[in-house]
Write a structure and sequence with these properties.
Blueprint lengths: L2 H27 L7 H15 L6 H22 L7 H19 L5
């Protein structure tokens, strides 16, 4: 799988997970409708399915995915929550992305 396809798949996976967790949050913390749980469940199912599309070992996928999740969560903070990330938020998320790149794209010995 090419690096770009891997990154795009991780981004889609992160959005699916965040939406799947955000909707119950809205229901519980912001008096949202219980109907929010239906798309939340679908989003979390999509998240789990997307994780299976990666060709690498599951442990490596989970470890690398964490870096992308951090980055997308900071974007969510800005775009959905309306909170501008600090320089430390951005720096930390970029470090996490670097960790993902090392885990996923480093040369592997035979």
């Amino acid at each position: 799988m090419t690096e770009l396809k891997t990154l795009l798949l991780f981004l889609a996976t992160a959005v699916a997970e965040i939406v799947g967790c955000y909707l119950p949050y809205r229901w519980l913390r912001e008096d949202g409708s219980a109907w929010l749980l239906l798309p939340a469940a679908a989003s979390l199912a999509l998240f789990a399915w997307l994780l299976t599309l990666h060709p690498a070992a599951s442990g490596r996928i989970y470890a690398a995915y964490g870096g992308v999740y951090v980055f997308v969560a900071v974007l969510w903070l800005w775009g959905v929550d309306g909170v501008r990330p600090t320089v430390w938020d951005i720096t930390g998320s970029l470090i996490a992305l670097c960790g993902m790149a090392v885990i996923m794209f480093a040369p592997r010995g035979a």
